[in-house]
Amino acid sequence: xxxxxxxxxxxxxxxxxxxxxxxxxxxxxxxxxxxxxxxxxxxxxxxxxxxxxxxxxxxxxxxxxxxxxxxxxxxxxxxxxxxxxxxxxxxxxxxxxxxxxxxxxxxxxxxxxxxxxxxxxxxxxxxxxxxxxxxxxxxxxxxxxxxxxxxxxxxxxxxxxxxxxxxxxxxxxxxxxxxxxxxxxxxxxxxxxxxx
Length: 196
Prior knowledge:
Elements (H helix, E strand, L loop, with lengths): L2 H22 L6 H8 L3 H7 L3 H25 L5 H18 L6 H9 L4 H27 L9 H22 L3 H13 L4
Helix pairs in contact: 1-2, 1-4, 4-7, 5-7, 5-9, 7-8, 8-9
């Protein structure tokens, strides 16, 4: 098995597992179901992941790496108003939620489920959340430099509040199967990110 094939197989297992976990949760996704859906033998799974928990950690790390990269690229895409760009990201995310029929994201799906069950997965969630908040903090610090964000607003505190607000609104949107909580969150974000 060459390096590319090994990487592709591992990625395929992680991708399939993420799809199943978004639908059924981590505990609701059985190893047999995952192997059947991914069409890989049990030995292949254990070749890459020593346990289901290790698989969960790898899946979360992969998810957050992609998420942070996408968020960073979106925020860096233009040299204009950084405050407005943060708000645009969340406004566009509202549409994305509807298009995916409120399936939600992996972090929303697994946050409450795994934090008390697996310290390793909780650590992966915490690290991914921190990386996301760091990207938002950098964007809001840039907004300060551009004089588009009130100096009374702490970039780091606002970034963390935005992340928590979005996480909670995402959960409510999933429960209610409507975008109203997300739209309300965006309005609250506009209030929090007061312009100078």
